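Supplementary Note 3. Input sequence used for the single-chain structure prediction.
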Amino acid sequence: MKCPFCSDLDSKVVDSRPAEEDASVRRRRECLKCTRRFTTYETVESLPLIVIKKDGTRQSFCRDKLLSSMIRACDKRSVTLSQLEAVATDIEQNILNSLEREISYSKLGDLVMASLRKIDEVAYVRFASVYRQFTDVSTFLTEVNKILVEKK
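The predicted structure, written as discrete structure tokens, is reproduced below.
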């Protein structure tokens, strides 16, 4: 860390403590050349995730929006909120680990459907019906038949 007084690059940390409700770390440093002290703050760099919508517009990823859509799909089902929160966390972590800052709505929807399918098949079909915009009963039945074939 460069000393603000003499511009030397060597310093030592004298004290560290959480700051801003644990969102950053406050460090007191001492320059090894001029022995003057100064304060630095260390924070996590967060890069925004962007969802590319069907119409090509871009929107910030919203975990709450993702969670609310899954809650709607699981309405009156035996799926707990903690299960859905874990799924939302897994999906968000999966996207962050990919190192891509943009994800298409279709890829995001596929991640949600794959996760819901493992938890509750009815919730999966409900989500798929909105996500894939089922227009008639035949597309709905096609999706249900896929599930039945895979169960055999």
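The first helix runs from residue 63 to 73. The first strand starts at residue 11 and ends at 19.
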